[in-house]
Amino acid sequence: AAQAADPIKIGIPVGLSGANSVVAPSVVQSAELAVEEINAAGGILGRKVTLEVADDGSGAAGAQKAFDALLFQKNADVLITMETSAARNAGLPIVTRAKKPYLYTSFYEGRSCNKYLYVNAWVPDQQVAPVVDYFNKHYKAKTYFLIGSDYAYGRGMLKFTREYVQKTGGKLVGEESLPMDGTDWTPIISKLKAAKPDALVTSTAGGAPNVTLTKQLRAAGITIPYGNLAVDEGTAKSMGGDADGIYISGSYFTGLDNAKNKQFLAAMQKKFGANLKTPNDLSVPQYEGIYAYKMAVEKAGSTDTDKVIKALGEVVVDGPRGKIQMSKQRHAPLTIYLAQVQKDGSAKILETFKDVDPGAQCPDLK
Prior knowledge:
four-stranded parallel β-sheet; 12 helices; 14 strands; 40% helix
């Protein structure tokens, strides 16, 4: 009986400092709402749910400390969070040692495979084609320039984009990157101007690098079609007028017209009021991820890791993004939207692609 009364602890290692600090507060807010709702409805298997948040600094060294603290000191039952790929990769060996489920709620470069890992966000196989296809069709784009952050996500996204551009008959006229904490894009923008591409696609670390790069692109007078593979709606709003006209592709936008999204937005507004951070394609998968874990534990009848891992691929979460199941090699088919950022920072949806398959991600995992 005493054990049944122990709370279920959800660990959230997240970049409260560093590159992800722009978006991390919205992720924590959505987690807080999910846990509040779950506890109000009786918890999970009658047990209260608590959150343990740790700053991973948006990088590898901070992630190792945060994962270790959450799993071995706080004894979290599960990790559910969005992070940079550098942080995720650094933390995975600690997850393996702890033998606890890890639900990754961030879009990323794909093909991260581990016995304990599930992903409910998009991969390049789902996200890149809408942007490039739109530029090819509507702007007759033939030449592309790519800019990214030099770490796993930036490199992986640009590799996929480069190959897709070439596969669809386009040509690359430049590809440049800065370290994840880089802020001076001037030399790269000079190369971009000299190359005179038809279109620009960028893939930087989510948050701060998006803001500095876009601001400097606008200051330099860059007006060609611009697709950003890493900016979420919340970060776009924080950029003000600089984000106007950027094309973004993702699985969630606040303007989605469905009952679950409207309920979610109303609940977020009620809970956080003037302090609400714009819900986005990084925070909403966090909210849904916590519900996926709840459903998996209830299906398994316990928090036993092996049972929960099996159940995570079987449960279907009906949330703000619609019905989502992580049934394809630990990843999820997703409805993807192509949108364009407006002057007020909102995202206008241009095209919808239903149930896009994530492709071959982890074929060797059972």
